[in-house]
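Extended Data, panel c. Modelled sequence:
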Amino acid sequence: MKPIQIGKIINKMQEARKVSLPTAVESFISLNKKRDPFKVLISTIISLRTKDEVTYKASKNLFKLASTPETIASLSTNKIEKAIFPCGFYKRKAKTIKDISTKLIADYASITPDTIDELLKFKGVGRKTANLVLTLGFNKPAICVDTHVHRIFNRIGYVKTDKPDDTEFALRAKLPKKYWIPINSLLVFYGQSICRPVSPLCSKCTIENLCMRNGVSKNR
């Protein structure tokens, strides 16, 4: 079996992305790039199991009302709920957002931590969220693994893992560090538009001849 040419694969994905980028994803990436670490953290909480366009709107609504730990902590949970509706699990997320803001004030002088270990101390923050805060909020090398990153890296044969967290650690061990920061947004694009979970669009894929197609029984 030939070794996976990961550099070539990523370059070809990047070329495909230049040609076409879904508006919702583009808006979400653009919004995050303008944010400070705290806003990245809060918008990432909002984004969980929520479409990008809804995340964009909900984040904008909330940050019009309040955009710092102090101002968000001062809002009632009900006001936060109304601001982020109709994102998925908005009631639970509103409580998480308020709790995170309160903890930041009490334990971190309102400064968002810049390490995974510290971010994981916040209830509601998992490895995916923590890594995204590091990459988008601090421009620090980290690997944010969501369902797209996990699926695509297994599909092309670069890793063989069962869970996203396992994929993160496998990638940390072998993926060149220069790809760590951009890999999530790149594979989210590719996973939503081409390398879909069911019946991927292999006929339109720029890396078709480099992919092992692990787990693909039907494609278009």
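The chain has two domains: 6-21+143-210, 24-138. This feature is highlighted in the accompanying rendering.
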